[in-house]
Amino acid sequence: MQNYHVLERIGEGSFGKVYRGRRKYSGHIVALKFVSKRGKSEKDLVNLRQEINILRALDHPNVIAMLDSFETDGEFCMVTEYAQGDLYQILEDDHQLPEEEIKKIAVQLLHALHLSTHKSDMKPQNVLVGTKQQVKLCDFGFARAISADTNVLTSIKGTPLYMAPELVKEQPYNHTVDLWSLGVILYELATGQPPFYTDKIVTLIQLIVKENVKYPNTMSAEFKDFLSGLLQKDPSKRMGWPDILAHPFARETTLQLAQRQALESQIRTIPKFYDAPTIVAPNKSIEWKAVDPETGQLCVKTKEISSLLIWKNYEENLAMAESWEIFVQNNDLAIAITQTCTNDCTDEELRLMLYVLHRIFYQASKSKEMLDSEMENKLTKLRSLLSTYTPVVLARQAMDILLQLVRTLMLPCVEMGTQDLIVIENTAVNVKVLKWLGAILDDPNAALTIYNELANAHQSTISLVCKSLDVADEVAIYALANVVHPNEGFHKTCSIPFPATMTEKISTQDLHNLREANALRIQLHTLVAAALLQNGLRRMVELFEKEASARAKVVVDDDDDLTLIASILKVFCHSARASAPFSKCLLGDFSQIILHYAIPTTGFNSYERYFALELLC
């Protein structure tokens, strides 16, 4: 340990305690994993030493790299790369991920698992995510270094949520247990919880062994087919590697492959602190210079250190502080944001700044109802300041930094407003930005203001959403459905009397509000119709045909007005009512599809039938 400072305990892994550390005489942050020798047989110790030697020689972009290792009389210590987040934290923050993001994670995990034919320890806490969205598997191989005679449920700490049926039944197993675990993780990323979930361990084991997996209707057929191949209870029926790598969900386009390989080439060069592998773990370290821990590139700009130290100090203090509020009470945070964004900052500085701000805004959003006006005002100013520096982030052309900015700004710590639309327009529409727009439209306090802005000063936002249908179809459709069919916040401002004869009994002011609201809705419907005629209409019709065709074979008894079919029909219905060219296009270019599938079937729920009939009318 003479070469490392232990900074803080960051968790307890499957086989030992883990600390965040720093290489002495440098700023290189590492993870220190300690594994006790107590209770292990000589065979276990030999296995562990062999595994450490194997991992030290392993160089794979999706496996946490072993930087150094040594042992004392009582324990082993492995020094590895340090990653700031894991899938468990992402699930806590985002709850569910879009399929295109899940696919990126799946592809990287598959490349890591393809290395080995032995059991790993697959669970969200062991899937680490770097600042460049590089996915890395940790505890890789430690599972096979533990004695095979040890009871699985007692040797692996925590819940068997991610264990395959043969593991919980303590039957013989092979590498396919990792494929089951991967399927469980991907399912949880899509739905927010594993396919089998209960806090009673006996019931959980029974579910894993006997219960069939239930897939949500919102899941694509391609993704469902991939998961069903992994989540086969009979190991012999699980997909093998040739089928997995050939599956459409696991295949990358040429562009995706090039992007991933470019990222891997940046991150492959990692400093190692030991000599060539030997049987006995060495203590001697190579001469070391400061590097970017993600890329391995030498840090040569000394002027960047001061700003990095500021945000590292914030990061460390935030982890130990009892409350986030102390960081917002004075102007130091605003000064640090300005200093970072107005100077020639590095990408690493921006990433660390956004990571700190995300943690503060996230904690603030959890206690939003208890904020006093002074604290809310300070948060609003901080958020507004960050928004003004969007051009600085855009100039980097780094998608991970842009997504972290959006992820930070879309946290509902304060009321959203017009400035959010400006940032949305500037950041180019993607899945994350579309979700942000949806969150704004769902805010009852901001609804009327946002709809007015969309109809007037920010009409280009609607065009951007329509253009994004080819790359983020489902999320874009939900955003358009929100635009044409406003939420409760809009209706509270201008409630529509029922039946219509009650109009004569409402006040003059309410009647005026009702007329203005109706005019605003017609204006929005017209804008959406015009934008779809330019971009996206064909894609929406294709999706409608696909969903309606699938629904014809299934009876749905869940009356949900937010299904993909209901959302598409809302957009078609309101756009056709407001725009004659839109109606003519539907009946002219797509009449066969519309007339065939818009006639409600027993597969449609009540909301879908309602909007289908409205469209036909």
Considering the chains and any ligands shown, give keywords for the structure.
617 residues, alpha+beta, Phosphorylase Kinase, domain 1, five-stranded antiparallel β-sheet, three-stranded antiparallel β-sheet, 29 helices, 8 strands, nucleotide-binding, transferase
Mean pLDDT across every amino acid position: 75
Order of adjacent strands in the largest pleated sheet: 1-2-3-5-4
Helix content estimate: 40-55%
Question: What spatial form do the alpha-carbon principal axes imply?
Answer: globular
Report the structural category.
alpha+beta
**Low-confidence region ranges:** 143-158, 276-305
Query: End-to-end distance, in Å?
Result: 77 Å
Beta-strand percentage? 5-15%
Please describe the biggest sheet, giving its number of strands, its sense, and whether it closes into a barrel: 5 strands, antiparallel
What is Rg?
Answer: 27 Å
Compute the number of strand runs.
8
Note the total helix count: 29
Report on this structure.
The chain is α+β, with helices and mostly antiparallel strands and 617 residues long. Among the domains are: 79 residues, Phosphorylase Kinase, domain 1; 203 residues, no CATH class. Helix content is 53%, strand content 7%. The chain has 29 helices and eight strands. The strands form two sheets. The chain has a five-stranded antiparallel β-sheet with strand order 1-2-3-5-4, with helices on one face. A three-stranded antiparallel β-sheet has the order 6-7-8. A hairpin with a 5-residue loop joins β2 and β3. The longest helix is centred in the last third of the chain and has 27 residues. The termini are far apart. About 7% of the residues have low confidence.
